[in-house]
Write a structure and sequence with these properties.
This protein has 233 residues and is mainly α. The chain is built from ten helices and two strands; from the N terminus they run H-H-H-E-E-H-H-H-H-H-H-H. Strand 1 and strand 2 form a beta hairpin.
Length: 233
């Protein structure tokens, strides 16, 4: 047998894909609020619902705990709550990154990127009309892909992806507020118009206004006392 070059041994190739599927399913349930902040994660119930073993489930739960999405408290594992201050910080980071992104897109996107922008905005508008949060999240992700490609800046996408689950949880809270969905897509249409006019300053202003409005709606849905609740980091 050949001696390993780096001291690494064989890996179990069949286990990782299953763990990723379990982790993805749980992460999506947390994103959409199906597993609400503070909810207890009972292994027996989750194993039955997902039809997986406790060993596989525990591996995924450890991964989510490392990401800060799950907290081990006195009542066992619970879905971590997002505090108002954490929410404000997330929206502040979004403002910095997305303000830069739309400015770059307005200045350097080519005709193909502009055409893809139209398609992405139309798809997002359709998702808002359907009012299905999973569709909205997927359409938003595609819009970011288009903006980053047109701006030639995938660093922004990489940084936002690290906050993705938290952003989507706040997006769910924001869109749960009456009339927010209609206002949100109107803001996106206005942003697209500014981008197509290559008005970088106006695009930035609209993007920041969109984020501020989303923050106000989301913070209105975040309990003010989460800092004292179990499940808050």
């Amino acid at each position: 047998m050949n001696k390993p070059l780096h001291g690494l041994g064989p890996v179990r190739q069949e286990a990782a894909p299953l763990r990723r599927k379990i982790t993805s399913a749980l992460r999506r349930a947390i994103e959409t609020g199906a597993l609400a902040p503070g909810s207890r994660l009972v292994e027996k119930d989750l194993c039955a619902e997902l039809d997986v073993s406790r060993t596989s489930l525990r591996e995924s739960l450890r991964e989510l705990e490392a990401e800060g999405l799950v907290t081990n408290g006195s009542k066992g594992l619970v879905v971590t709550a997002i505090s108002p201050q954490e929410a404000r910080n997330i929206y502040a980071v979004r403002g910095v990154l997305e303000g830069l992104l739309v400015e770059q897109f307005a200045r350097q996107a080519d005709g193909d990127a502009m055409a893809r922008l139209d398609v992405a905005v139309a798809d997002l508008a359709s998702a808002y009309e359907e009012a299905v949060i999973e569709r909205i999240i997927a359409a938003k992700a595609e819009l970011y892909e288009v903006l980053c490609a047109g701006a030639d800046n995938f660093i922004v996408l990489e940084l936002l992806s690290r906050l993705n689950t938290r952003i989507n949880r706040l997006r769910f809270a924001s869109l749960s507020q009456p009339l927010r969905a209609k206002a949100s897509i109107a803001e996106i249409h206005a942003l697209a118009d500014a981008l197509k006019r290559r008005d970088a300053a106006e695009a930035r202003r609209i993007a920041l206004g969109h984020i501020d409005a989303a923050a106000a709606a989301a913070l209105g849905a975040v309990p003010k006392n989460t800092a004292s609740e179990e499940g808050t980091p």
